[in-house]
Design goal:
By secondary structure, this protein is α+β, with helices and mostly antiparallel strands. 46% of the residues lie in helices and 12% in strands. The structure holds 6-diazenyl-5-OXO-L-norleucine. Residues 62-63, 94-95, 113, 157, 164, 192, 256-258, 283-284 line the site of 6-diazenyl-5-OXO-L-norleucine (DON).
Length: 304
């Protein structure tokens, strides 16, 4: 399969169409990013990297990091974790407060903000230095040492973090939160503020295409069954109230972030990261989704 030619074709077509959106500005620091950047990196199971465009520029991975934190918590807490957070699509915006109330403090899934806060709380219970250990883990599975936290982005979100703070206290009121709210929010804002290039992000997702084994970390990260379940969660919940649309148009498990990144996997074939900062009204990258739609059309395969 000539992945390099295919992603170059995809890149050209997306650039020609030039569909636009809006850069996230509710985290003020993210609003400063150049909206014209666009990169793609695909990593096959042998570790070959195929890349085009701005694939070597670090960007804020935001909610994509929720896949990494879930991976760190899942084997340690399965199955008890699933009494604290559900595995159903939310059909609601990622930061909905109303839904958390009518679901009685049990978030719909680990990728909406409330669910990811429960995961961050579980991380704080299990790891002595959660933020450092998340970074170590991601650098390990990306096979790099270059992933870092952008403290301006972290502080920017922290200073405008009323909604996540509200969600965390709400979870605590339902006794679904074990650690101090401030401590967990610090970990959550830190992992959302991690910066990675498309190449490193695709490398860090490679184990999910490879039955849980990371060729870069040279070890089994998750059992095959846990890896399959994370892929199932990405397919059904990775794009919040646009998860159905992403499954329909692209047909791969994937996860988006408001920094404009999308990471996706084709099990047993490849992992891929696409980045372009402009978002649609659901908070997902317009060009990244379009690129992945063209990719699976050109490949003539997806999960389906
Ligand atoms: O908590 C937030 O709102 C952000 N740190 C992450 C949200 C996000 O990336 C949603 N994804 N599309």
């Amino acid at each position: 399969m000539d992945y390099q030619s295919i992603i170059e074709e995809v890149y050209q077509e997306v650039q020609q169409e030039n569909q636009r959106g809006k850069v996230a500005n509710y985290i003020p620091e993210l609003a400063h990013v150049n909206p014209d950047q666009f990169g793609i990196a695909l990593v096959d199971l042998q570790g070959n990297v195929f890349a085009v465009g701005d694939s070597q520029i670090p960007f804020s991975i935001q909610s994509i990091s929720k896949v990494h934190t879930l991976t760190m918590v899942f084997p340690k807490f399965d199955p008890q974790l699933w009494s604290r957070v559900n595995v159903e699509p939310s059909g609601n915006p990622f930061n909905s407060i109303a839904q958390l109330e009518y679901e009685k403090g049990i978030p719909r899934n680990p990728f909406i903000n409330a669910g990811a806060l429960v995961i961050a709380d579980a991380l704080c219970s299990k790891y002595d230095h959660p933020t450092e250990q998340i970074l170590e883990f991601i650098n390990e599975i990306a096979g790099k040492n270059s992933v870092s936290i952008n403290s301006a982005v972290k502080n920017s979100e922290k200073n405008h973090g009323e909604r996540n703070t509200a969600l965390a206290y709400f979870l605590k009121s339902y006794k679904n939160f074990d650690n101090p709210v401030d401590q967990v929010l610090e970990v959550y804002f830190s992992h959302c503020a991690m910066e990675m290039t498309c190449e490193d992000l695709a490398r860090s997702f490679s184990f999910l295409a490879n039955d849980g084994y990371s060729i870069f970390g040279e070890r089994k990260i998750l059992s095959e069954s846990h890896a399959r379940r994370i892929n199932a969660l990405m397919l059904t919940c990775g794009f919040y109230d646009e998860a159905g649309e992403f499954a329909y148009r692209v047909g791969l498990p994937g996860k988006s972030g408001v920094g404009g990144g999308v990471a996706a996997v084709m099990p047993h074939k490849f992992s891929i990261a696409v980045w372009c900062p402009e978002l649609n009204e659901k908070g997902n990258s317009v060009k990244a989704i379009r690129a992945l739609e063209l990719l699976t059309d050109k490949l003539s395969f997806s999960l389906f």
